[in-house]
Amino acid sequence: MSGFHRLPLALALGAACLAAAQNPSPPTVRLVMRGTGEPATGVAVAVLSIDSKGSVTSKVEAASDPNGVVTVTDTSEGKRYLLIVDDFLRPTSDCEFRLPARVPGTPFVVQVALGGKVTGLVRSPDGKPLAKADVVLEEHEKIEPAAGTQLPKGTVMSSSQRLLTVHTNEKGEFTIPAVAPDDHARVTVTHPDMASATSPEFQIAASKVTRVPDVTLPLRSKVVVRITDASAKPLAGVLVRLLSTDGLRAAALSASGRSNEMGVVQLRISPGTYRLLVEGADPATSEEITVRENDSLERTAVIAPKATIQGVVVDEAGAPIAGAHVASLRGTVGTLHETDAQGRFSIPTVGDAAILVNVHADGFVDVERRELALSKTPHRIVLKRAK
């Protein structure tokens, strides 16, 4: 509905549909404050008139008057009316009523609550206002453990619900309108060129502006992990994960990637504490890494390949093809191998996932195999001579 975001009154609905409308005089909708029963003035609503076929015949957009009342102008008997009140954050609450009224003279009543507004400023690492940053409002609620539950000292159980995302303007400022009052919340700020940051928790005041302390985004840090076997030979295609230990933001902060042909994976992450997990390594030996702003850390993981995918490349007569190029792709990382004099090749692997293989030899038609996996017998790949 046009103009909703410009209204000073923000809504968080109780969505209580309490009575029917009056007939034959124009039915009215009265908006009252939740808890006090005081009239809610200046609240934007839309009233849809719906016929027996379910088609909308008219739509009225209006704001409640000083008495909290909105009058419906279409009063055809038997009509069904749908009242939509926009609360901005959660799904809109719809209330339905019909004519004739069951209780003459009684308005259709909806309870609402005054919302609050959240504002703040985002800065870059050098302290300058940062434009085009994403600001996510999260409702944060602490959860009391069940009676008799034993938790480690210092453990806090909580839940977080993502509510709304806005963007900073050219001055680095953001405004989040129409926030449900009394909620405990915080904002998480992200930008493609920098690490993310989260504000301290705050409580939203009803019908007031809550100013969030300035949020300064730190520089991203770099962690380089080198993967080799026991002979120091680089291993490509190995999955490396950095799992954040920040419970509420772990999913957003964690990062992963596969080693390249040099056995190296480079991850850009936000400052924090992470658990380094390497595919094929014993999880019990995983390392905890503390990353500070603009850090550049290096780690080396030595693992034993779980097995090798073996195969042989032959022509249509069954003769081995020496010097054929076997390109393997696992994830987004590729490695190149060459067949020996007997046409044999082997590809080290640290996981069970199948790989894609493309085989090329001069004078032959290329062959692609999409599901080359571990096997007790070597894979046999037959190349046809090019015409």
Structure, described:
- The protein has one helix at 250-253, and strands spanning 28-33, 44-50, 56-63, 69-71, 80-85, 93-98, 108-112, 116-123, 134-142, 158-167, 173-179, 184-191, 194-198, 202-203, 209-211, 215-216, 221-228, 239-244, 255-258, 264-269, 272-278, 287-291, 296-302, 307-315, 325-330, 333-338, 344-349, 355-360, 367-372, 379-383.
- Strands 9, 10, 12, 13 and 14 form a five-stranded antiparallel beta sheet that branches. It has a four-stranded antiparallel beta sheet with strand order 3-2-5-6, with no helix packed on it.
- 1% of the residues lie in helices and 47% in strands.
- The chain has 387 residues and is mainly β.
- The chain contains one helix and 30 strands.
- The chain has four domains: 4-112, Immunoglobulin-like (Sandwich); 116-216, Carboxypeptidase-like, regulatory domain (Immunoglobulin-like, Sandwich), CATH 2.60.40.1120; 221-302, Carboxypeptidase-like, regulatory domain (Immunoglobulin-like), CATH 2.60.40; 307-383, Immunoglobulin-like, CATH 2.60.40.
What descriptors fit this protein?
387 residues, mainly beta, Immunoglobulin-like, 5-stranded antiparallel beta sheet, 4-stranded antiparallel beta sheet, 1 helix, 30 strands, disordered N terminus
Assigned CATH superfamily of the largest domain: Carboxypeptidase-like, regulatory domain
Number of strands: 30
Query: How helical, in percent, are the residues?
Result: under 10%
Number of domains: 4
The unreliable regions are 1-24, 86-93, 155-159
Count, helices: 1
Report the sheet with the most strands, covering strand number, pairing sense and barrel closure: 5 strands, antiparallel
Round the mean pLDDT to the nearest integer and report it: 75
